[in-house]
Amino acid sequence: xxxxxxxxxxxxxxxxxxxxxxxxxxxxxxxxxxxxxxxxxxxxxxxxxxxxxxxxxxxxxxxxxxxxxxxxxxxxxxxxxxxxxxxxxxxxxxxxxxxxxxxxxxxxxxxxxxxxxxxxxxxxxxxxxxxxxxxxxxxxxxxxxxxxxxxxxxxxxxxxxxxxxxxxxxxxxxxxxxxxxxxxx
Length: 185
Fold this sequence. Notes:
Helices cover 69% and strands 0% of the residues. By secondary structure, it is mainly α. α5 crosses α8 (162-180) and α7 packs across α8 (162-180).
């Protein structure tokens, strides 16, 4: 069943239709939120917020076949709202004290040489570099690699051509290669 049909059923009072939309779109919304805010716990909360806002505003959707792009926009707005609120409550890095990261957590002390810890460190480094990419590259990387969204689905969701998706992924990979190559040689 198409997204448009599920939207129509939801508007007709069938809540289980929206539950199906949630199942379909949660991974993508979560990836968009994570790409935008760079924090897993915040991304989960924002994805839920976006899905709730979508449900509440579903009656304003004039083109049900564009549900994905519409929901993507809601997720971006939820993230922007969160980022603005966070800016107003930011604590200076110097106030955190020595040995803390920007979130206020102590730096891990690792020297074990454990290969599993090294792989975890590499994954964290990779994710940190992905999160440091410009927004347009970060979004396509997160959706393509972490949520297995196809070029065509990305293009539809983001409202651009598949050629643009290809160009963004190519550029994002090049940036990541350049940033990670010296450390991973």
